[in-house]
Design a protein that fits this description.
Helices cover 65% and strands 14% of the residues. By secondary structure, the protein is α+β, with helices and mostly antiparallel strands. It is rod-shaped, with a radius of gyration of 35 Å. InterPro entries: CorA_TM1_TM2, MgTranspt_CorA/ZnTranspt_ZntB.
């Protein structure tokens, strides 16, 4: 295989995983992620019939099939490890919500996590596409099949993780909206209770002659009992309405089945 200036210029502008036919030469660019070193390493492979070549410095050298498969396998393991890490994060956040707690700065953190998941998903998609194209024109198709199968599983897993994060995002929104609605409902009930009380206080606070109960020594107690009665009726109505709200897992009563 030959390494010329045209290929050098092309490779300098492309670092993503890619399989292509460049000027008659079959080239695989493999972007390998090293999570331990937090660095990306790019491998360049060339193919001629059943032979595999690896670009080292400015020269293509013969490369062993098993070593080639091991590099791809190691790259795939890195993506799988990231998926596992993302799953653990989401599961931890789900457990927090199940305990009835909210997550601080969830929307900001979930946006960052979503970007990382999407990046991993993109890399897996590129690897899957490159390996499928390589397998179509390679005599090593049989050896590549298990790796392609593994990439497909990791790709599906990555999509499921993204779906779980989106559902978690919707759940947080729903919980916050429900709490806001409950607060507004409680404030409405309080307004309904205290509105007649304010009318009573305003009525008896008028500086006019011949006021109702004027001169009665027990008038204060009458008004106090009336206020307590209104408060009690309001709280009873509120409690009954809350009691009618069923939990999601409440069983259907026998009467409703008849």
């Amino acid at each position: 295989m030959q390494y010329d200036d045209n290929l050098a210029k092309f490779l300098s502008k492309n670092s993503n995983t890619l399989y292509m036919d460049f000027l008659g030469q079959k080239i695989l660019i493999l972007s390998s992620l090293n999570t331990k070193m937090n660095k990306e390493k790019v491998y360049i492979f060339g193919f001629e019939e059943e032979y595999i070549f690896k670009l080292e410095n400015t020269e293509f050298k013969m490369f062993n099939l098993n070593d080639f498969l091991n590099i791809i396998r190691a790259n795939l393991d890195e993506y799988k490890a990231m998926n596992t890490h993302f799953e653990n994060i989401i599961e931890h956040k789900e457990n927090i919500l199940l305990k009835g707690n909210l997550i601080k700065n969830f929307f900001k953190k979930s946006f960052i996590l979503k970007q990382k998941i999407n990046k991993n998903l993109k890399n897996l998609s590129l690897l899957n596409e490159a390996l499928n194209l390589l397998a179509e024109s390679s005599p090593h198709k049989k050896a590549l099949k298990p790796l392609i199968f593994g990439v497909n599983i990791a790709l599906k897993n990555s999509k499921e993780i993204l779906t779980r994060l989106n559902e978690l995002h919707l759940l947080i929104n729903a919980i916050k909206n429900e709490r806001i609605n409950q607060s507004l409902y409680f404030l409405s009930v309080l307004s309904a209770i205290f509105l007649p009380l304010n009318l009573i206080v305003g009525f008896f606070g008028m500086n006019t002659d011949g006021l109702f109960l004027n001169g009665d020594k027990n008038a204060t107690w009458y008004i106090f009992i009336l206020i307590c009665l209104i408060l009690a009726i309001g709280l009873i109505v509120y409690y009954k309405k809350r009691k009618k709200e069923l939990e999601f897992d409440d069983k259907i009563s026998k009467k409703s089945n008849k």
